[in-house]
Each structure stands twice: as structure tokens, then as C-alpha cells.
Amino acid sequence: MVWGMTPSIVKLAMAGGIPPLGFAFWGAFGSALILSGLCAKRRLGLPWDRPHMAQYIASGLSGFVLANFAGYTALQYIPAGFFALLVPLSPILTVVLAAMLGMERLTRSRVIGTALGFSGVALAMAPGAALPDVSLLGWALLAALTPVGFAISNIVASRLAPRGTDALVLATGALYAAAFFLALLGLALGQFHLPGGKVDALIPLQAALTAFAYLLYFRLIAATGSVITSQTGYIVTIAGVIWGALLFDERMGWLTLPAGALVFAGLWLVTTRK
User: Fold this and answer.
1) pTM as predicted
2) Total of domains in the chain
3) How confident is residue 263, by pLDDT bands cut at 50, 70 and 90?
4) 231: region left, alpha or beta (phi > 0 left; psi from -120 to 50 alpha)
5) Sign, CA torsion 110/112/118/121
6) pLDDT tens per residue, range 127-140
């Protein structure tokens, strides 16, 4: 539900004039500070050796910098509900990448599920579906890089996380790494943002939600693995459509239902076990 709310909060922030990278930076840095406070309370230090640094950087770059730069930029133009329909591509891509790396088996049902998932997203981009205008197709394709980043992050979190390190520490380190690279990118592209307006009240809200979601995400990864964790995509999609309707009065076209059905069918085939 929290991740499903994020696209709508981002749209509100962009409409208020906050640049995408500026908002992404404060979301990452603010949530890292919140999690640092929790680490201090539990007397957990952040290791800075090479294995931990590799995990922080890889997770921060893929799951936050790439995913949010693409998503936040595109959300200035596309509906939050459409963006939510892209989220289930993450678990589908996670399984495909895991199979390529020998972590999972690419069965016939998973191949069919992957095809159904991509077919559903393609249908969602058609006139009369979740994308209101064909002229927005380029922004929709940019937004599709977001689940790619999340899928890479799922693999990274599963493979590179040093054994025995608390999930809270891993989440905190990844967010600090993400904030560092977002600050550099924001300065380079002229998108760094200094808070000062009324709309900046969304920054601490986003930071708190991100901190909560990232902590929960890393705990799920540690407890259940990347594939099972990725099944949150079902709820994220439904929540994203609901938040978009509530906050922006978005109305999806009639093709959205069969598109969503294809996406969910693909997700089920990809992630289900016998």
C-alpha cells in the first residue's frame, strides 16, 4: 500500500515544481537519516568494508537511482495508475534475471507468464486503456525502466548481501549510497533542490514512507528470498490505481481490466510454485 502511494506523491511533488532528482535525493537522504536513528537505537553500526560497500552501491544505484530517475521523470506526464501497472514487471524480470544467473529455473510456465506480463503492459499502452494519449508512449517506455531497476535490485539484494548483516543496516547503507549518487546527478543536470516552499512538506512524508518500505523490503528479502518478496507487486498495482483515482480522479479506459488481468496472470505463472 505504501509503495502504491508513491507515484501519486511524486506526481503531487512534480506538479508543485520540485525537480525529479531533487525529490528523489531528499527522499533517499531523509529516509537514510530515519533508519540511521533506528540503527543507533539498536546499537548497529554500518560496516564500510568492500563487500558491504559493493552491496550498498549496487542496491542504491539499481533500486533507487535508476528506478526513481526513470519513474519520477515519467510521472510528470503519465497517470499514476498506469505507472502502477508497470510494477508487476519487476517480479517477472526478477525471475528471468535469476534464471539467466542460474539462481532459478526458467520453466515453460514462466516463459508463458513472462509473455503474458509483457502483453498486458503493451495493452495498457493502447488507446482506450491506462495511457490516455499515444503521444505519451515515449514517457511510458521511460517509466518501464523502473521495474528493470527494481528487478536488478532484487537480485543484488539476494546475491551480494553479506551474511549475518541486519536488514536495517543493508537498507540504511543502500539509501545513503543512493542519496550520494542522486546528489551528484542532480547537481550535474541542474535538478538539485533546496526545500523552502509549501509543497516541500511532501519531502518528510516521502522520506518516512520510503524508510518504512525499504526496511520492510529488506526484511522480506532476508526471510523469504527475492521471488516471494516480488509478489508484493499484486498489491502495489491495485493500490497505485486506487491512489491515482482518489488523489487525481484518474479514470482508466475499459482495456485496463484485460491488461491488468494479463499482467496478473503472467505474474502468477512466473512466481507460483507447484
Assistant:
1) 0.79
2) 1
3) confident
4) alpha
5) negative
6) 777 778 888 889 99
